[in-house]
Amino acid sequence: MTTADLTQDPTLLAGKAPKSDSPTRRAIQRFRRHRLAMLALVIFSIICLSAIFAPVIERYPPDAISLRDKFQPPSAEHWLGTDRLGRDVWSRTVNGGRVSLAVGLMAALISTSIGMLFGAISGYYGGWSDMAVMRVTDVFLTFPPIIIMLAIAAFVGQSIVNVILIIGLLSWPTTARLVRGQVLAVREEQFVLASRSLGAKNSRLINQHVLPNTIAPLLAEVTFAVGAAILTEAGLSFLGLGVPLPTPSWGNMLETARSLDILENGPWMWVPPAIMTLLTILCINFIGDGVRDAIDPRHRGKG
User: Fold this and answer.
1) Which of 98, 111, 94 shows the shortest CA–CA distance to 228?
2) Quick check: 296 pLDDT over 70?
3) CA 40 → CA 65, 255, 290, distances in Å?
4) DSSP state of 242
5) Which of 33-42, 145-154, 176-185 is modeled with the greatest confidence?
6) What is the dihedral of CA 38, 39, 41, 42, to 10 degrees?
7) 239 near 254, Cβ under 8 Å?
8) Which residues pair with 82 in a beta bridge?
9) What SS3 class is residue 88?
10) How many C-beta neighbours within 10 Å does residue 275 have?
């Protein structure tokens, strides 16, 4: 090594070895280069912040009824107008985001947890466990999920908890199949075989070696699961079997569009929640695309 090399590299001059980028840091750098995903992340962060601080930015209580101001178009007093009961649409939209986002996140957490559990058991143990789990998964995938959700919602009744449980408990098969495929590949890796030969228990192998190596592709699936759960809640609420009134959600606000009179003469009542639902789903999907591209091994090493 010459003197010129030392002067050009300050880390060597200070007696330190140059730092190598970790896989996580490289993945973050690739995600940051995904401009559409970064823009979607910024917009989604604004939507989440508006939902979190809804009690601060709302102008009126979302359930406050004012018959004097009913069915008013947007104005300086009511930014997005009022509905047929005089409730402020702006306040109901930002508060509805709290419910819709909470339902989406919690339902996705439940479905992902169940899918990881069943997928890990099916892929790692194989044999009759694999056959049993996959046959149950096939049964769930055979029937249209929205029909089953509507039937269960009509039977158990309307509540936010019921909506979360219905969506979460019926949306895990796709995640289970993904995790199973990843586990089938990871369980034959050399480090897993070495740990097994040293006497490691199956539970330890799954928790410390198998599942951590399935997290990367699962991250993208989780983002899509959140978007799908939000869209499912909107569909259930639109059909009158989701989040019960008067609690606002984007779905039950869209339910007002079923009336032809409101559809034509009161677009301010359903356009804001429709735009927020569409924008949120698009942002989540773009973020999921960015995460998938960042963690995809085929993208590693590309400038």
Assistant:
1) 111
2) no
3) 35, 27, 10
4) S
5) 33-42
6) 120
7) no
8) 88
9) strand
10) 12
* pLDDT of 17 strictly over 70: no
Sort 240 into a burial class: Cβ within 10 Å, 0-12 / 13-18 / 19+.
Answer: middle
Residue 88 β-bridge partners: 82
Between the CA of residue 122 and those of 132, 137, 202, 302, what are the distances in Å?
8, 11, 13, 35
Tell me the domain boundaries of the chain: 97-299
Q: What percent of the chain has pLDDT over 90?
A: 20
| Domain 97-299 homologous superfamily, CATH | MetI-like (1.10.3720.10)
Q: What angle do CA 249, 253, 257 make, to 5 degrees?
A: 155
Q: Contact at 8 Å (CB) between 111 and 168?
A: yes
| Tokens found for residue 153 | 């919602």
Helices (H), 157-214: 160-170, 173-186, 190-197, 202-205
In the predicted structure, residue 234 carries a pLDDT above the cut 80: yes
- pLDDT at position 44: 94
With beta carbons less than 8 A apart as the criterion, state whether 96 and 248 touch: yes
Tokens linked to 285: 């999907």
Q: Can you give the pLDDT at residue 297?
A: 52
Token output for 206? 């799954």
**Token couple for 1:** 């090594």
Q: What does pTM read for this prediction?
A: 0.80
Identity at 196, one-letter amino acid code: R
Q: What is the pLDDT of residue 288?
A: 86
d(CA 232, CA 219): 20
Residues 146, 242 contacting (CB under 8 angstroms)? no
